[in-house]
Amino acid sequence: MKTSAPSRLASLFAAILLFPGCAVVEDTRQRAEKQRVAKQNQAHAAFRTQPGWRKQTFRNEELLAKATAQNTAVEIALREQRGILLVDGAVAMDFPVATGKSSHPTPKGSYKILEKKEKHASNLYGRIVSGSGSTVVSDADTRDHGVPAGGRFVGAPMPYWMRMTTTGVGMHVGNVPGHRTASHGCIRLKKDTAMQLFSILDVGSPVTVDSFAPALGGPLGTDSVVVAEVTAKPRPRARSKPKAPAAPVAEQPVQVADNQPQIGAPANEVSSAPEGAPAETVPQTAESVIEQIVAPATTAPASAEPPAPAPAPAEPAAVAPPAAP
Length: 325
What we know:
single chain; L,D-transpeptidase catalytic domain-like; six-stranded mixed beta sheet; four-stranded mixed beta sheet
């Protein structure tokens, strides 16, 4: 069934009138969402103005009650040494962290949690103990330090481990100074914070690492910036692991052939002893050595005898005459 031209024009005109209405509805929803988040973040903004807030953790219990793995995200602010948990875009937690030092900086980027383990130990960093149990290296790196015979490597404990990269960066319980970087690249958390995040987040939960939390739009609060932008320093060249010393090689006596000058003998001393007789060192002057070198090669000694004459050729044998018949 064909539609007439006036019908098509009427449908087009109605669609044109409808589109602005949709845009208005969408814009209204976005404004309402921003207002909701801003209202919920008022308590957090006030928290950051309180004295000593840097040592404390902010929790919005109303938002935390609604937190699930599907509506949450974590943002780490490197320069503030703080982390925030967002629930539907609003700040539900604001907590201190300790990120990587300049020798092992925490890499910026957008990640997802790849693995969760309540009990975990590093296979890269830890300490080396001897066979008797005493600590040999307290801050060991398995790439740099060898384990002595009878000793062992003890990995650093990382409870409530939440892996972010395949190269060993993640969030876990650790020492958190609160005002400086301290880790080998991971994001250290206080135990209560780690336990709460571990219970909410799941594999696939998003984690963003940047200079400042993107949701806050920059530094927020009194004295929020505590560290400068961390510039990665090249990792020191790995030290060679200790090896057992090689067995000493026994020194062999050097055999010197007869009539050969000894190493270290003066250059103007040569042996003139006859063959079979004990060698004696006869001193010669430099002039006599030079005369021997420049003497003509065709000059024969005076006592040399002339060569013997060559033997004469043999006469042909006589042939006997034939016998008479």
